[in-house]
Amino acid sequence: MAGNQLGVLNALDVAKTQWYHFTAIIIAGMGFFTDAYDLFSISLVTKLLGRIYYHVEGAEKPGNLPPNVAAAVNGVAFCGTLAGQLFFGWLGDKLGRKRVYGLTLMLMVICSIASGLSFGHSAKGVMATLCFFRFWLGFGIGGDYPLSATIMSEYANKRTRGAFIAAVFAMQGFGILTGGIVALTVSTAFDHAYHAPSYETNPVASTVPEADYVWRIILMFGSVPAAMTYYWRMKMPETARYTALVAKNAKQAASDMSKVLQVDLLAEENKVEHESSKSFGLFTKKFARRHGLHLLGTSVCWFLLDIGYYSSNLFQKDIFTSIGWIPPAKTMNAIHEVYLVARAQTLIALCGTVPGYWFTVALIDYIGRFAIQLMGFFFMTVFMFALAIPYHHWKNKSNRIGFLVMYSLTFFFANFGPNATTFVVPAEIFPARLRSTCHGISAAAGKAGAIVGAFGFLYAAQSTNPTETDAGYPPGIGVKKSLMVLGGVNFLGVLFTLLVPEAKGKSLEEISGENEDEDVVHDQQQASSVRTVPQ
């Protein structure tokens, strides 16, 4: 294979792990840190927004965001993310990874700050402004998915490529954890500074005017890590694979990577010309034959994963309240409720989310992407049904710790499983000229699943008893049946994983067939369709 491959690409494939690898992980990973912080921090403050802007005089319970507003606030960033993944994924293949990489980061910084500065004379005005800025925040976040994954895969060596891409994605866990820690810190400071009675003691005084600063500070903090890495993103050279295989500039690719690898590399213009004759587009029969099932597999698996993953993550507070782990809202003041919601989500992140990501980083290049994804979907199915079937057992106060353990295990196997691998694999198995686009399509399918989870679970998890639903919501199917539906969705993920090929230990050109003739690729892919599991 190395004989057909450009020398600069072969040098990247066989390079020892060096400092530039870790630099690339940190630069790309801080984008994902910010992505996760921005996407999940909203769930920490939605109850507070309801208390501040939708207080009803004389109501038995604190104010709640109306169903349409809650759905918009929780889901609008995902709509922006979906659009950003498709647009920037396509743009990354047209203009180059580096040229649009800084743009996504600046969009995230500006819109994080603007979200916290949302203004308006009425509750509707504030929510509309918040949703506007969170849509464009999501648009920037969406671009980070295909660009970060593609840049990391094209910089990495083939021996540890999976771990490097997974490490970028694993920064998401620290972003979720930091969101909880920031919310804990801010809410504790304000709770001590502005003492307030519980809602049942004094409904109006339970939400102090200064509470309006709490949610704004939490949302605006997301701009800090993104701003810190902007300079370093701009210093990164374009990836050699884009420069050589897409831009057809072997001389520039060799020059850039000579500086990065600190070795002398020759430009091979004749091989670049040979590669250009094999070019094909996304909407061609050749692409459909070579990669059609692969794209279907990566897209559907990500879609199914995100239905369960985001619905569970965004609505942890509702699940914890329903089992009594968070006390009834009327027994607390507004800021203390933020503290308790943040504490619960931080514990879940610490116990299940963060460890799961790093198990994937440690093992992905040993046991492979396919095995981790299949195992993850399987155990997510098992634990979701284990939570759902004896759900009333878990609601007993003596069993709440058991519920927390089971719930944490679901997140552990999501992250030591498909949540990481659905990000890694699309960055490896498609040709360079379509890699960013195909990753963007797969990721956008995932965000479509997140939208289904965010909007659907909000309504589905409502009690079947009309007197027990949140204000403004129709009766749903209840948390128990919602968890059973999510278990079924996870099982479908097991089946669709069979369409995804193994990429462990192969060069990107070998996996995508870019160095091989048409008939060889076709024969190999027929063989791989018979046996997907690596031996």
TrEMBL record:
<dbReference type="InterPro" id="IPR004738">
    <property type="entry name" value="Phos_permease"/>
</dbReference>
<keyword id="KW-0813">Transport</keyword>
<keyword id="KW-0812">Transmembrane</keyword>
<feature type="transmembrane region" description="Helical">
    <location>
        <begin position="213"/>
        <end position="232"/>
    </location>
</feature>
<dbReference type="InterPro" id="IPR005828">
    <property type="entry name" value="MFS_sugar_transport-like"/>
</dbReference>
<keyword id="KW-1133">Transmembrane helix</keyword>
<feature type="transmembrane region" description="Helical">
    <location>
        <begin position="482"/>
        <end position="500"/>
    </location>
</feature>
<dbReference type="GO" id="GO:0016020">
    <property type="term" value="C:membrane"/>
</dbReference>
<feature type="transmembrane region" description="Helical">
    <location>
        <begin position="100"/>
        <end position="119"/>
    </location>
</feature>
<feature type="transmembrane region" description="Helical">
    <location>
        <begin position="69"/>
        <end position="88"/>
    </location>
</feature>
<dbReference type="Pfam" id="PF00083">
    <property type="entry name" value="Sugar_tr"/>
</dbReference>
<feature type="compositionally biased region" description="Polar residues">
    <location>
        <begin position="523"/>
        <end position="535"/>
    </location>
</feature>
<feature type="transmembrane region" description="Helical">
    <location>
        <begin position="340"/>
        <end position="364"/>
    </location>
</feature>
<keyword id="KW-0769">Symport</keyword>
<feature type="transmembrane region" description="Helical">
    <location>
        <begin position="440"/>
        <end position="461"/>
    </location>
</feature>
<comment type="similarity">
    <text>Belongs to the major facilitator superfamily. Phosphate:H(+) symporter (TC 2.A.1.9) family.</text>
</comment>
<dbReference type="GO" id="GO:0005315">
    <property type="term" value="F:phosphate transmembrane transporter activity"/>
</dbReference>
<feature type="transmembrane region" description="Helical">
    <location>
        <begin position="163"/>
        <end position="190"/>
    </location>
</feature>
<feature type="domain" description="Major facilitator superfamily (MFS) profile">
    <location>
        <begin position="24"/>
        <end position="505"/>
    </location>
</feature>
<dbReference type="GO" id="GO:0006817">
    <property type="term" value="P:phosphate ion transport"/>
</dbReference>
<feature type="compositionally biased region" description="Acidic residues">
    <location>
        <begin position="511"/>
        <end position="520"/>
    </location>
</feature>
<keyword id="KW-0592">Phosphate transport</keyword>
<protein>
    <submittedName>
        <fullName>Inorganic phosphate transporter family protein</fullName>
    </submittedName>
</protein>
<feature type="transmembrane region" description="Helical">
    <location>
        <begin position="401"/>
        <end position="420"/>
    </location>
</feature>
<dbReference type="GO" id="GO:0015293">
    <property type="term" value="F:symporter activity"/>
</dbReference>
<dbReference type="GO" id="GO:0036377">
    <property type="term" value="P:arbuscular mycorrhizal association"/>
</dbReference>
<dbReference type="InterPro" id="IPR036259">
    <property type="entry name" value="MFS_trans_sf"/>
</dbReference>
<keyword id="KW-0472">Membrane</keyword>
<feature type="region of interest" description="Disordered">
    <location>
        <begin position="509"/>
        <end position="535"/>
    </location>
</feature>
<feature type="transmembrane region" description="Helical">
    <location>
        <begin position="370"/>
        <end position="389"/>
    </location>
</feature>
<dbReference type="InterPro" id="IPR020846">
    <property type="entry name" value="MFS_dom"/>
</dbReference>
<dbReference type="GO" id="GO:0031669">
    <property type="term" value="P:cellular response to nutrient levels"/>
</dbReference>
